[in-house]
Amino acid sequence: MLNLLPSIIALGLAALFAWVLALHRRSPPESTAERRAAARALAVAVGLQSIHFSEEVATGFHERFPALFGLPAMPLSLFVAFNLAWLGIWIASVPGLRSARLPAFFAAWFLAIAGALNGVAHPILAFAAGGYFPGLVSSPFIGGAGLWLWLQLLGATSPTGGPDGRRSNWGFRRKPRHPGTSRSGAAGETSD
User: Fold this and answer.
1) Do the domain assignments include residue 181?
2) Residue-number span of the structural domain to which 39 is assigned
3) Number of helices (H), then strands (E), in the chain
């Protein structure tokens, strides 16, 4: 399964970044129109990702990408199952964005990141290969859709703030300060 390592690393980092964004950028209740716009961008990006995936399957991405690292081909059935599963998740996430569901935002951020990376990576891979590389033709379209989705998600969300309005501390709950204490918690000192 070493042939999956490059994909696991790249997609794992993209998923981690998407999860951090989903946790730390929430959609306020009043952002209904912005969520609808993000859902439309997600639907378009899913359509373009479907075309991109079809090009990759038809032209042997699952064989040529691992070969760049001197690895054997990725099993076609695994490549297809993985991509179809994500296409299903993204389709199911379209209505979830409208209702501000955290898992839907994670999935949308993941597609925005992966789409934008595809738009950059495929031309680089083609240059490295000295010609066409599977997925090259559709990569600018999914890259553009990824960036558009990213912008729509930024518009539909805002950084999560703590109870005092400051940015959160990466998902960990702040200990509430008691009146009359400083940040260090020493009694008698005034808070700032």
Assistant:
1) no
2) 2-25+33-159
3) 6, 2
Asked if 92 and 103 touch (Cβ cutoff 8 Å), the reply is no
Structure-block tokens of residue 126: 């083609």
Res. 44 pLDDT band, cuts 50 70 90: very high
- Could you tell me if 35 and 97 are in contact, meaning their C-beta atoms sit under 8 angstroms apart? yes
On the question of pLDDT at 171 being above 70, the answer is: no
The verdict on residue 173 lying in a domain is: no
Phi, psi for residue 172 in degrees, rounded to 5: -85, 140
d(CA 191, CA 172): 21
**Cα dist from 134 to 49, 58, 164, 172, whole Å:** 14, 8, 50, 42
Q: How far is CA 81 from CA 44, 104, 126, 157, in A?
A: 21, 20, 25, 31
Six-digit token string for 5? 């390592």
The whole-angstrom distance between residue 24's C-alpha and the CA centroid of its chain comes to: 13
Q: Residue 174 pairs with which residues in a beta bridge? A: none
